[in-house]
TrEMBL record:
Pfam families: CYTH. InterPro entries: Adenylyl_cyclase_CyaB (IPR008173), CYTH-like_dom_sf (IPR033469), CYTH_domain (IPR023577). Residues 9-183 form the CYTH domain. The lineage of its organism: Bacteria, Bacillati, Actinomycetota, Actinomycetes, Micromonosporales. This is CYTH domain-containing protein. It comes from Planosporangium mesophilum. It comes from the Bacteria.
Length: 191
């Protein structure tokens, strides 16, 4: 195993488009899951300049600059098993514009901007995010951090069973928000 893999956080996610937000809220409340107050997140996604949508994301590093409540978070994710099972490195940065310039100098290019309202909760050892994403709608994500010895796909299977236990009709997606936002933008422009 490479050193960066051993020190990185393995973030495993499952994501679902939510058509009935009230049914989901009721199911969460019935399980004693209380969501945080809403916060606005402004994300700029980045990819290596040589990468294009339609190419594989496995093994490719992707970056994100997020601003929330005046704080800036830099994240680098590298998909391992699939797009939602990634090695992840994160840190706060003081100056978003300087970090943007540094990313460009390192060979990254901006892809899409993602704006959303997020509410979060803990469900045992799982993090739950309820997102209202500009241009694409409401989504629920379940995330779990794992060690390098665990299978991301197996954890995704267990997370899927957990979501389905809510009894709310939702449509699972294996796409990341940047891909979903980009597809919505292309559809709106007629491309």
């Amino acid at each position: 195993m490479r050193t960066d893999e051993a020190s990185a956080i393995h973030e495993i996610e499952v994501k679902y488009h939510v058509s009935d937000g009230q049914a989901l809220m009721t199911a969460l409340e019935q399980r004693g899951i209380t969501l945080s107050p809403p916060v606005r997140q402004d994300d700029q996604a980045y990819a290596p300049a040589s990468w294009r949508y339609g190419m594989s994301k496995i093994g490719v590093p992707f970056a994100r600059l997020r601003t929330e409540d005046g704080r800036h978070l830099f994240t680098l994710k590298r998909p391992v098993d699939n797009e939602l099972a990634c090695l992840e490195h994160e840190t706060f940065v003081a100056d978003r514009e300087q970090m943007h310039s540094a990313l460009l100098a390192m060979g990254f290019a901006p892809t899409v901007r993602i704006a959303k309202i997020r509410r979060t909760a803990c469900w045992g050892e799982v993090s739950l995010c309820l997102d209202a994403v500009d241009g694409i709608g409401a989504f629920v994500e379940l995330e779990r951090l794992i060690g390098a010895e665990e299978s991301g796909e197996e954890v995704q299977h267990r997370l899927d069973l957990l979501v389905r236990s809510l009894g709310v009709r939702m449509e699972r997606t294996t796409e990341t928000y940047d891909s979903l936002v980009r597809a919505a933008m292309l559809a709106a422009s007629g491309c």
